[in-house]
Design brief:
This protein is mainly alpha-helical. The chain has one domain: Chorismate Mutase Domain, subunit A. It has four helices and no strands. Helix 1 (10-41) crosses helix 4 and helix 3 (51-67) packs antiparallel against helix 4 (72-95). The N and C termini lie far apart (43 Å).
């Protein structure tokens, strides 16, 4: 991968962004695999939802966003949506056991 300041035209910038987006999607797929694995280890529907864990996770992601120079509100929204969606998948897996 090139550093952003090494790109000489918009096409190179777009290609690098595409590479990053593919890596993000692959990481999301891997994350979902762990979410499904967690569902197999949980003992109740309440433990699947785990609101205390959810809130602590969001706070940690906000901190990580700040450290990375990102808007913590945007990162929180992304993770809130992601975890809610993945939580639905986790609940389906839990109920199928």
């Amino acid at each position: 991968m090139k550093a952003p300041d090494e790109c000489s035209d918009i096409q190179e910038v777009r290609e690098e962004i595409d590479i990053i987006d593919r890596e993000v999607i692959e990481a999301l797929s891997k994350r979902l695999q762990y979410v499904i694995a967690a569902a197999r280890l949980k003992t109740s529907e309440a433990s699947v939802k785990a609101p205390d864990r959810f809130n602590a996770m969001l706070q940690q992601r906000r901190e990580w966003a700040k450290e990375a120079g990102l808007n913590p509100d945007v990162v929180e929204k992304l993770y809130r949506d992601l975890v809610n969606q993945f939580g639905d998948e986790e609940l389906k897996e839990f109920k199928s056991q």
